[in-house]
Amino acid sequence: AKSRGRNRYAFYSPDMAARTRERMLIEQGLVRALEDNSLTVYYQPVVDMADGSLVGMEALVRWQHPELGLVPPDRFIGVAEESGLIDGIGAWVMRTACTQAMIWLAKYPIELRLAVNVSVREMAADNFVDRISHTLQETGFPPQNLEIELTESTLQSIEHSQGLLYQLKALGVSIAIDDFGTGFSSLGLLKHLPIDRIKIDRSFVRDLPADSNDIAIARAIAAIASSLGLQMTAEGVEEKAQQQFLHELGCQNAQGYLFSRPLAREEFEQLLSGDKQN
Ligand code: C2E
Ligand code: CA
Ligand code: CA
Ligand code: CA
């Protein structure tokens, strides 16, 4: 219930108190997390839709909090964005993932594409493009193997930073729109931004190939991708029937539990060295 007037917190419940406390713990913890090694990066394999062969990986941050345990990114990325801590975290994830992926590129004869999630809040920093450029130089990671994932729900503000996306492209990196179909971006916006790939959101994949609405949505997205010359990745592919359906639609890449969960560094390394296939 909404309270009126001065006494706004009259209905403050123990539940809200617990949530507020958790939020504070998260924010305070994040300040320390960058120094105490409690953040790690997991790597989810991205595969060729046709045969399931490995083409790359998405870097996904993980946080082991001393009191709260393993905190999923959905619960701390928002807090990090609001508190400004996302700049430090994003920079750390980018540096860690590029360093690791460079080791794998040198060690294994496979052309891997590394995808890294970037919050639009990060892009607002003055030195954002310089920071990416510096990380690429420092780690030696080839820019053409890096893909930056931006969430569609924030495309509205990306429209204002169109120039930034062109600067990123000039570095040689590619750009993907994440969670495609969940936001409100117009198709015109897609046309005017230097986008290389769209990722169809898990929510549209889940009920394929049974749900007729999702069939229609998946077809429409595939048609947009193909007519604009964009690559397409499906996320949350858990069943063979989903893979088959999306493959027939012309979707090139997939990630999901059917192929692999996000893996710790050592697990991903095992996959590369072939241990897991034998
Ligand atoms: P996302 O970018 O859409 O990442 C995909 C999420 O789907 C991941 O959740 C992944 O573990 C999960 N997933 C993958 N395959 C399947 C599947 O087959 N079924 C189901 N049910 N789920 C699957 P995760 O790792 O918890 O990340 C959640 C979100 O947090 C990400 O969504 C992304 O928006 C954000 N995030 C993660 N790491 C970073 C980061 O380093 N920086 C930023 N800015 N955001 C990040
Ligand atoms: Ca993503
Ligand atoms: Ca996504
Ligand atoms: Ca998502």
From TrEMBL:
Residues of the EAL domain: 23-276
Transmembrane segments: none
Listed name of the protein: EAL domain-containing protein
Organism (species): Uliginosibacterium silvisoli
Section of the entire sequence shown: 534 to 811 of 814
